[in-house]
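In response to the reviewer comment on reproducibility (Comment 2.3), we provide here a single inverse folding case reported in full, input and output, so that an independent group could reproduce the run without further information from us. The C-alpha cells appear first.
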C-alpha cells in the first residue's frame, strides 16, 4: 500500500503539525497498562516532532458521547499522559461549531512556541465530525501546515478528522499507522502457509465480512465464543439458554459449506455464567435446554492448541469464552499460550488484536511473544474484510503531497 511516511527533518521550527491519534481509552480515573499501549506507541513520534521545534496539535475521539460530557473530555487524557509519561501537553477546550470558537483555537496555536504540544477537545464533541463535514474539516485544517494520520484504529471511519481534513492539507501516514498496515498486509498478501486464524467474540453479524475474507485466504478458521452459537444451531445442535443472533443462523449454514471453517466439538456449560459456577464439559449433542455455554470444551482446547503449533501465520481476534469469569477463561488462556508459543518461533508470524484479547495477553504476560499486537480491533477486522480498503487509508493514498 503506497502510504507516504512523514520525514522528520533536521528542523521543523514553528511548523504546525496536526496529528490524528487514537487515544480512545476507558473513562475511569487511572489508565492501566493495556490501555496505555495506545498512546505509548504514538508518543515517541510526537516527542521527536516537538524536539525538532514543531508545534504539535493532537486530536482524538474518546468514547461515543451523544453530547458534550466532561466524562469524555480529552483533558483527562492530556493530564494522565503528562503525569505518567512526563510530556507536557496543553489541553484546548475547542468549540469548532462557531467562527468564534475556531478563532480562539487559532489564536492559542498562533501564540505557541516551537515544541509546544496541544490536545484538542474530543472530536466527537464537534458537530459534523461523524458526518465528515466539509466546514469542520476546513476548520481542523486551518490550525496546521501538515496533517498526519497516526490512528489506524480510526481508519475504518470516514470522519472529518480522519478523511475530510486530508483534502485541505498535505497529508501523511504516521509510524504507528504504518506499522499496523505493514503487519496486516503480510496476512493479506502471500501469508506463509499454513495460515490459521482464530476468531471469537459475541456477534457473528459484525464479523461476517472478516470471516468471509479469512475463509478465502486462510487454511483454517477456528470460530469460538458466542460467535460459534449460530453455527451450532445451523448444525442442528441445541445451545440451551445461550445468546444467539437468530438472523445469523442462515448465514452460518452457508459458511459451514466451507471445508476450512472449524467449529468447537464440545463446550463448557453451566446453569449461569459467574465466578461461582462449576461448569460441566459436554459434547454438542448433550447440551440441554437449561444450559448456558461459557467456553470451548476440553477436547476442543486440546485439539486446537495442538493444531496451532503447525501454523506459520496466525491471526487471533476475540476470546473463545466468557473470559471475564475465571471458570470460563481456560479456553482463551490456552489459545493465548498456544499462539504465543508458536508465534515466538522465528519463522512464524503471529498477529493478535481486539480490545478483549489484548488484556488476556497482558494478564498472562505474553505480549513479548507475539510479533504484532494490533490496538485497532475493529479496524483490524475491517482491514482484513475489505482487503485493506479503509476510508482513512484511501484518503492518504489519494492525496498528492509535495
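Designed residues, in position order:
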Amino acid at each position: 500500500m503506497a502510504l507516504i511516511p512523514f520525514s522528520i527533518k533536521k528542523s521543523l521550527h514553528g511548523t504546525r503539525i496536526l496529528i490524528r491519534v487514537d487515544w480512545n481509552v476507558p473513562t475511569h480515573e487511572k489508565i492501566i497498562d493495556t490501555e496505555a499501549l495506545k498512546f505509548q506507541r504514538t508518543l515517541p513520534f510526537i516527542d521527536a516532532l516537538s524536539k525538532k521545534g514543531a508545534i504539535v496539535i493532537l486530536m482524538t475521539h474518546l468514547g461515543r458521547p451523544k453530547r458534550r460530557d466532561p466524562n469524555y473530555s480529552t483533558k483527562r487524557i492530556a493530564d494522565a499522559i503528562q503525569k505518567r509519561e512526563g510530556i507536557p501537553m496543553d489541553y484546548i477546550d475547542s468549540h469548532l461549531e462557531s467562527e468564534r470558537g475556531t478563532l480562539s483555537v487559532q489564536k492559542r496555536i498562533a501564540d505557541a512556541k516551537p515544541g509546544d504540544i496541544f490536545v484538542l477537545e474530543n472530536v466527537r464533541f464537534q458537530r459534523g465530525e461523524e458526518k465528515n463535514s466539509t466546514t469542520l474539516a476546513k476548520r481542523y485544517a486551518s490550525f496546521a501546515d501538515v496533517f498526519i494520520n497516526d490512528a489506524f484504529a480510526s481508519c475504518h471511519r470516514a470522519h472529518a478528522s480522519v478523511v475530510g481534513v486530508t483534502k485541505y492539507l498535505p497529508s501523511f501516514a504516521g509510524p504507528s499507522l504504518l506499522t499496523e498496515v505493514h503487519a496486516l498486509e503480510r496476512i493479506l498478501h502471500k501469508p506463509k502457509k499454513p495460515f490459521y486464524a482464530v476468531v471469537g467474540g459475541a456477534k457473528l453479524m459484525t464479523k461476517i465480512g472478516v470471516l468471509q475474507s479469512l475463509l478465502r485466504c486462510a487454511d483454517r478458521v477456528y470460530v469460538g465464543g458466542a460467535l460459534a452459537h449460530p453455527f451450532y444451531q445451523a448444525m442442528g445442535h441445541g445451545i440451551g439458554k445461550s445468546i444467539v443472533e437468530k438472523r445469523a443462523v442462515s448465514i452460518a449454514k452457508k459458511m459451514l459449506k466451507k471445508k476450512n471453517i472449524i467449529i468447537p466439538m464440545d463446550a463448557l456449560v453451566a446453569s449461569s455464567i459467574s465466578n461461582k459456577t462449576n461448569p460441566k464439559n459436554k459434547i454438542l449433542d448433550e447440551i440441554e435446554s437449561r444450559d448456558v455455554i461459557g467456553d470451548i470444551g476440553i477436547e476442543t482446547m486440546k485439539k486446537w492448541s495442538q493444531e496451532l503449533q503447525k501454523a506459520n501465520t496466525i491471526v487471533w481476534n476475540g476470546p473463545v469464552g466468557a473470559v471475564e469469569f475465571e471458570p470460563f477463561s481456560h479456553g482463551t488462556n490456552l489459545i493465548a499460550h498456544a499462539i504465543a508459543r508458536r508465534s515466538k518461533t522465528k519463522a512464524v508470524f503471529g498477529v493478535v488484536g481486539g480490545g478483549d484479547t489484548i488484556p488476556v495477553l497482558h494478564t498472562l504476560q505474553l505480549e513479548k511473544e507475539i510479533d504484532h499486537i494490533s490496538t485497532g480491533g475493529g479496524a483490524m477486522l475491517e482491514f482484513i474484510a475489505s482487503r485493506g480498503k479503509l476510508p482513512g487509508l484511501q484518503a492518504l493514498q489519494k492525496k498528492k503531497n509535495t
